[in-house]
Amino acid sequence: MKTATWILVFTVLLGWTMNASAGTLDEVKSRGYLTVGVNGQVFGFSMPDDKGVWKGLDVDTARAIAAAVFGDASKIKFVPLTAVQRLPALQSKEVDVLCRNTTQTLLRETTNGLNFVHVNFYDGQGFMVPKKLGVKSAKELSGATVCVLPGTTTELNAADFFRKNNLQWKPVVIEQNAELNKAFFSGRCDCLTSDVSQLAGHRAVAPNPQDYIILPEVISKEPLAPVVRHGDDQWFDIVNWTVMALIQAEEFGITSQNVDEMLKSPDPEIQRFLGVTPGLGAALGLDDKWAYNIVKQVGNYGEIFERNVGPKTPLAMERGLNALWNKGGLMYAAPFR
Amino acid sequence: MNRPTNIQDSPVSNSAEILKPPVTAVGPIGWLRKNLFNNALNSLLTLLTLAFLWKTVPPLLRWAFADALWTTPSALCRQNDGACWSVISRNIRFILFGFYPYDQQWRPTAAVILLLGLIFFSRDRKYWTKGLAYAWIAGLTVMGTLMAGGVFGLTGVESSLWGGLPLTLLLAVFGLTAAYPLGVLLALGRQSRMPAVKVLCIVYIELIRGVPLISLLFMASIIFPLFLPAGITINKILRAQAAIILFTAAYIAEVVRGGLQAIPRGQYEAAESLGLNYYLTMRLVVLPQALKIVIPPTVSILISAFKDTSLVVIIALYDVLKTTQTVLSNPEWMGFSREAYLFLALLYFTGCFSMSHYSRRLERQLSTEH
After folding, report:
1. Of the candidates A197, A220, A243, which is a domain's last residue?
2. Do A106 and A243 reside in the same domain of the chain?
3. A·B CB contacts under 8 A
4. pLDDT at A289
5. A15 touches chain B (CB under 8 A)
């Protein structure tokens, strides 16, 4: 009898949770700010600086969403989440969108009831070794001790790679990024494996960065994208087209510096994009100036990339796969019309 | 060997020659002989220890002080052999205050100083009056106002932005002060003659003690929100705080129960024969004795609860441990984890040692043994 009562209570509560889904856009607007799940520990993607101000590529992507919705990139609240917390936090509506270097996979989209929007960073797993080891390819790493972070797909990918190529390996599992780094540079393992974006950062702080090379093999695909919940197509569109607007702005050559001049551009595509010719914003349920606000306040994708992970930062990453489609990369936005 | 041969005047007898004991038997040398070199094995151990200290302590001191850099940028640190305390000094405001708005950080500073001041004054039992209670209430109100703002021209700061040391102290102080009375109540409930109360308390205590704190924190942060209706979110800090209180209370309850069982039956009977009711028996006779007996284990639990607050790291609350780890994942400061963790160790040691020191003092003061 008692159990039955409890089950009833839970069902009612759950049902309530499911039914009460006013559109995310309306919720966000009435709340007055956007809540975004971020990582908080990955330099270049989302991390606070020494003044507690959030910095990074994921953070700027999130700011672009706030700029699109409110016309004000600062109306935003960042919620640092661990790898375990991130999906439940999105499901329980603690955050409106997740910008937390999350890899798009089939099971996450289906079983977890989530939708990944357009990719904002193409990553992949690689290996770094000391030059003096004389290794030129990851396939020569037989018998190597490999430093790796636990609990992520990184460990599993490495295991798959070594098994597929019939190589022996000995994983050295270390919990913290900083400790992993230390172990590798003090020679506890022959090889460090992580996402290429991370390896660059690790190498930047080595005692002698020129003594280490990142091997050419990229053993996994890691398309990192912002995530929203299933079941709210309007909100999915807004987040998706925000990411695409960042990419399209770079393709048009619109930057935070020249966006005001671009308003006078005779190009009809740019006029539609910046809302000089109205229509696109309204279709998303936003202000027609949405893309203008994104570029004005946050910049285009290229600016965000350079600012957070580009050659002038400690990560010193090249554009690679993250270049525009017409420059040899994969960043391709659908037409804005 | 020199033996002192001078004669001393003695009020008892000035004729007999009184010899001082040989210097090898008293004083520092005598102490050394008696304690460190009293047989071959001990002498060997002493020498080995000395050699070990000689090998380790001077290099450590050189690393930590003589060769250390205190405020330089990290690039200089990487060329230097000594400790790099700049990782602390250059990031101290983020480590201590987390996301609290940079230009408002005098507010958490003031709140922490106020809290430490209150704790300092509460140490002495002669201040344990109604006045102190009012001071605490006033102090906590002022602290809350300082942290949250929104009134008297202070800009509002959401609790999700609180971090660093104030968060650690908040979780610890509120966790401990709320868990203690709850624990006492649970212990009394478990001893109760009313079956419903008793069963409820036993179930609660055993359930909570049966799971680790980490799983409670996970439940509070991940599972609990899924059951809440849409749009209602309970603050993350509050959820963690509740988990810590519930957890600590269950342990305190069992310790207090030990104290209650140590009180002889006669005490209860004596109180009853004086006509005291249940409340007065407990308040005046049983609890003062029981709680005094269990001071040492209680303080152990409080100390470990204080350290356990750092587990909120796993639900991504930025307490002082997490803020430090965040600084360490910045490429600029990666690799200086020794210095950073030493700093944290010192911080926690100060907290824990003062608690255990205070508990010993309290035991002495409350002692009624003859």
Report:
1. A220
2. yes
3. 115
4. 93
5. no
| Beta strand pairing call for A97-98 and A34-38 | parallel
A239 touches B: beta carbon within 8 Å? no
Closest by Cα among A220, A216, A218, A206 to A135: A216
Give me the amino acid identity at A33: Y
Q: ∠ CA B322-A94-B217 to the nearest 5 degrees? A: 50
Using one digit for the tens of pLDDT, what is the confidence trace for A47-79?
888 888 899 999 999 999 999 999 999 999 998
Q: Does any domain span residue B267?
A: yes
Chain B contact present for A108, CB below 8 A: no
Same domain (yes/no): A73, A213 = no
Enclosing domain of residue A28: 18-122+224-327
- Give, for B306, the enclosing helix (H) or strand (E): helix B295-308
**Is the model's pLDDT at A16 over the cut of 70?**
no
CB interface of A with B, residues 65-84, below 8 Å: 77, 79-82, 84
A256 and A231 part of one domain: yes
ipTM over 0.90: no
pTM of the model: 0.78
Q: Is residue A337 part of a domain?
A: no
Nearest CA in chain B to A182: B335
Distance, in angstroms, between B229 CA and closest chain A CA? 5
| pLDDT at B13 exceeding the cut of 70 | no
> Is the CB of B228 less than 8 angstroms away from the CB of A40?
no
Which residues, in sequence order, are CB contacts of A262 under 8 Å at separation 6+?
A: A252, A254, A270, A274
CB contact under 8 A, B326 and A48: yes
Pick B100's closest partner by Cβ from A41, A52, A81. Answer: A52
Are A24 and A118 found together in one domain?
yes
| Average confidence (pLDDT) over B34-54 | 88
Which chain A residues contact residue B225 at CB under 8 A?
Answer: 88-89, 92, 94
Angle among Cα B223, B228, B231 to the nearest 5 degrees reads 125
Question: Residue A125 and residue A129: Cα distance in Å, rounded?
Answer: 14
Shared-domain flag, residues A31 and A92? yes
Helices A177-185 and B337-366: angle between axes, nearest 10 degrees: 120
The 10s digit of each residue's pLDDT in B127-150 is 777 888 888 888 888 888 888 877
